[in-house]
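REQUEST ID: PR-0412
SUBMITTED BY: lab tech R.K.
PRIORITY: routine
TASK: structure prediction, single protein chain
INPUT:
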Amino acid sequence: MEAVGFVCGSGCVVRGGNGGGRLLMCAEKNGSSVAVSRRAVLGNAIGAAIAAAGLLSSQSAQASDGIQGGFTKTLFPKAGFNSPSELTPGSVSMDKAVLKDPAVQKGLSDLQAKRKELSDLQAQFKADSQLDVVSKVNNMFNISKLRDDLNKVNSAFDEETQIQTDRVVRNIIQDISELNSAAKLKPDVPRTPKKIEKTNSWMSKLASDFDKLLAFY
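STATUS: complete
OUTPUT:
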């Protein structure tokens, strides 16, 4: 026995065959008959389900990315990216008792003296672009002692502030290494204009990072 299933969009009556119908028949219209297989119908249904699942998955992934991004920005700030706004001298919290410690004061005094020596070196290099900068820098900075002084003065800040001032401390050490690399001369080979410019650039960067840190005191 055949039963009428539904009326299709074109006005044809779709009937199910006996036993649930293995073939869906579209009634004749304009003298033609169209047979639609169950497989085609099921295929369309499965395709729609997959598309819906894909949309949900995409929305879920976007939500997850948003949550994870917020989590990362809060707990793992990076230099220049996802980090709090740049610190200014008036925006930091400092432990005055720690700052008054004689060891911290000595470290601060040493750093201020090194900054003045750096200014002197810049002036000398301006007057003589073939100056042996590497020897003067190595005499000026004992990296182990410099790192100790930087860590001492940095200890006066609260932990949150140190997250950012630590970057300045690391930059100062790195600047010295880069300056030595840029200023290095080969025997009997004069410094080229390009190397002069690069050496000046790293001197300025080192001076700027010293100023950034010392401005807080």
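NOTES: The chain has seven helices and four strands.
REVIEWED BY: pending
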